[in-house]
Amino acid sequence: MDLLVTTEWLAARLGQPSLVVLDASAHLPSAGRDARAEFAAGHIPRARFLDLASLVDDTSPVPAALPRAEQFEARLRACGVNNGDHVVLYDDSMLRSSARAWFMARMFGVGPVSVLDGGMEKWRAEGRPLEAGVPAVPAGAATLAHDDRSLVRSKHDMLATCETGAEQVVDARDAGRFTGESEDAVHGLPGGHIPGARHLFFRSLLAEDGTFLPIDQLRERFAAAGIDLDRPLTASCGSGMTASVVLFAAALAGKHDAAIYDGSWSEWGADPATPKETGAAR
Questions:
Q1: Which class for 78: exposed (0-12), middle (13-18), buried (19 or more C-beta within 10 A)?
Q2: Selected catalytic residue, list 237, 247, 249, 251
Q3: Is the pLDDT of residue 63 over 80?
Q4: What is the mean pLDDT of residues 139-159?
């Protein structure tokens, strides 16, 4: 099953019983947007609201930690997902937040799962139909295949990487926050980056209409950032959201074993004991 599906593909299949469309929109607080209210005002027909922003393990000391297995399973069931359903994720966010939901689904062995290329932005621009309200759906019976944390890195893991250089680190934030020229206002922290990290702004992986670049261009973007897709790779950002976009792009380019630093800069930057660098990638 394709990781990425087009608006044309989805429009032709809406209403199929084994297809479940989930709105995985999430926004920065500074955006002043309410994903749930926007969903109720207008969404892709038959879609359900995933409420991605609430899928956080609040028992973890890691800021915005990936959810526990029971949380994700319960949410899928509440959205009417059953085993074997083809889940299509989309968002209406500048963050391309559906990639975060895709990473969660991958970690828990949910499949098949695809992301709608261009999301709601492209769907709306093409004049495709919208549906208002919050649909009532029967509970599903989805079960998770596993809880695979092998592609999730902790602060301890990242400290080891700083020492050994065993894994490449790629930072998905904008250049100002990466270099330290601007503060990380989202998390109330100084700018900077993990020592040795490469910079690849997540929006550079997208075309002007919000769709992902063709595979050959994605590979060129990684190479231009000094990233070798044949070597181990861990993505970081502010809190794990846009790092997931980099991971999704890497998967499109054929790399399916890239990891995420769950705490990202919101954890690393807040710890006075962690080493930090400023300036361009070395």
A1: middle
A2: 237
A3: yes
A4: 97
pLDDT at 156 over 90: yes
Tell me which DSSP letter residue 234 carries: E
Ramachandran category for residue 276: left, alpha or beta (phi over 0 → left; psi -120 to 50 → alpha): beta
- What tokens does 90 get? 């989309």
Domains by residue range for the chain, with CATH: 4-125 (3.40.250.10), 152-268 (3.40.250.10)
CA angle 29, 35, 41 (to 5 degrees): 140
Say how far apart CA 137 and CA 76 lie, in whole Å.
12
DSSP state of 159: H
Give the pTM.
Answer: 0.97
Tokens of 255: 């790399």
Match 């609201």 to its residue by tokens.
Answer: 49
Q: Which helix (H) or strand (E) holds 107?
A: helix 98-107
Q: Give the pLDDT band (50/70/90) at residue 15.
A: confident
Maximum CA pair distance of the chain? 53
Q: Taking residues 73-83, what's their average pLDDT?
A: 98
Contacts of 45 (CB under 8 A, 6+ apart): 14, 129, 130, 131
Mark whether 162 is an active-site residue.
no
Q: Coil, strand, or helix at residue 7?
A: helix
What are the two backbone dihedrals, phi and then psi, of residue 244, each rounded to the nearest 5 degrees?
Answer: -65, -30
